[in-house]
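dumping this here so i dont lose it
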């Protein structure tokens, strides 16, 4: 297992230019990035198509990633984890996503389930649920989204009722990644049945033991009188909703980083093919239409990376992160989908065939405009956070 130095627990290096800005990563962050890129090239890419076709859960890859310290990287050091910074985590995720975002999602979902515990759980819960993730290659699930609920987290209907030393949970969750393989679940449930109670006062969050092993990694989960010890409450007193929102602030930069990694792969595949494919006696890279498409991919990829790293840096500085995180997620997701579509266009008819990777990359891209908040929601939130709050406080933007 790789041992990372303390600089990986912070953001971008402290080396500043005379302007006060620094666009350099630390040597340790660069080493992490290079190691993850090599893992993506040597381990993930050769089998990505197989897992896409068979839809098998990538346990072999996950175990190898766990052995290298690529899984559960943000778990604090006092619980036995690496305590990676958001910037370091984003570099790691971006590099792995270059190989396959489906496999990376199986790895990243642990971070989504673990973050609420890192934010709000007591030491006992952290030790019981986070500690086991370090000891062996396990996966966890984040149970918030519901059928018909989509991005409306405040409107969830799963309920919990306290009876003695237990809570009884009833309801359904949908699109829960790793649900069929999870060792435990983070579950957001409504503890106040009054529909008029504000979301910030109505929810309780739990960590729950796995319901069973299934073959699919994304599925619905139904809770029927599921008994959970009160000792497993991560955030009670109606504060579960706020914990869920803070979780998205911390994980959206990593989702944006995944989008950047996949967009980078699309760009590389398109550029290589444009140099190999010849038409009318010359490489298609020499055609202005193709050249402009590839240049546009590169421009938007670089802008997406800058916004992603900025949003991760804000998390590391422990500033309110919704504004930058939403912008990064929305812009990177949009960039990815256009880049993937253009990559298929560069390939022409070959891009529509499974013999080449770009059709898979395009299929993998769409979800980034949907999960952890739709593109429209992210754009609306970032705009609202910017204009409404700043104009209210300052009188101008």
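and the seq i came up w/
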């Amino acid at each position: 297992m790789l041992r990372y130095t303390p600089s990986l627990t912070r953001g971008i290096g402290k080396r500043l230019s005379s302007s006060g800005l620094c666009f350099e990563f630390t040597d340790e962050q660069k080493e992490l990035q290079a190691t993850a890129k090599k893992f993506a090239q040597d381990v993930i890419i050769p089998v990505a198509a197989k897992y896409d076709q068979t839809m098998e859960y990538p346990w072999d890859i996950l175990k190898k990633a766990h052995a290298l310290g690529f899984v559960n990287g943000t778990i604090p050091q006092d619980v036995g984890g690496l305590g990676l910074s958001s910037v370091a985590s984003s570099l790691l995720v971006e590099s792995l996503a270059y190989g396959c975002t489906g496999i990376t999602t199986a790895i990243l979902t642990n971070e989504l389930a673990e973050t609420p515990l890192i934010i709000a759980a007591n030491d006992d819960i952290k030790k019981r649920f986070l500690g086991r993730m370090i000891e062996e290659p396990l996966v966890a699930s984040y149970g918030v989204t519901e059928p018909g609920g989509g991005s409306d987290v405040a409107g969830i209907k799963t309920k919990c009722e306290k009876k003695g030393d237990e809570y009884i949970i009833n309801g359904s969750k949908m699109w829960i990644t790793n649900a069929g393989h999870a060792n435990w679940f983070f579950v957001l449930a409504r503890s106040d049945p009054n529909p008029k109670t504000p979301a910030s006062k109505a929810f309780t969050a739990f960590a729950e033991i796995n319901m069973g092993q299934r073959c699919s990694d994304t599925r619905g989960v139904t809770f029927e009188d599921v008994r959970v010890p009160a000792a497993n409450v991560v955030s009670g007193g109606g504060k579960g909703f706020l914990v869920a929102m803070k979780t998205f602030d911390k994980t959206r930069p990593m989702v944006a980083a995944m989008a950047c990694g996949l967009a980078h792969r699309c760009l590389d595949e398109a550029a290589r093919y444009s140099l190999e494919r010849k038409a009318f006696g010359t490489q298609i890279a020499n055609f202005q239409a193709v050249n402009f498409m590839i240049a546009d991919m590169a421009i938007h990829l670089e802008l997406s990376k800058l916004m992603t790293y900025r949003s991760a840096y804000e998390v590391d500085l422990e500033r309110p992160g919704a504004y930058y995180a939403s912008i990064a997620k929305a812009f990177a997701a949009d960039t990815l989908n256009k880049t993937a579509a253009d990559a298929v266009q560069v390939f022409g008819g070959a891009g529509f065939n499974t013999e080449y990777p770009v059709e898979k990359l395009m299929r993998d891209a769409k979800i980034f405009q949907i999960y952890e908040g739709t593109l429209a929601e992210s754009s609306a939130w970032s705009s609202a956070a910017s204009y409404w709050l700043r104009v209210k406080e300052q009188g101008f933007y």
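Confidence is low (pLDDT under 50) at residues 196-204, 208-216.
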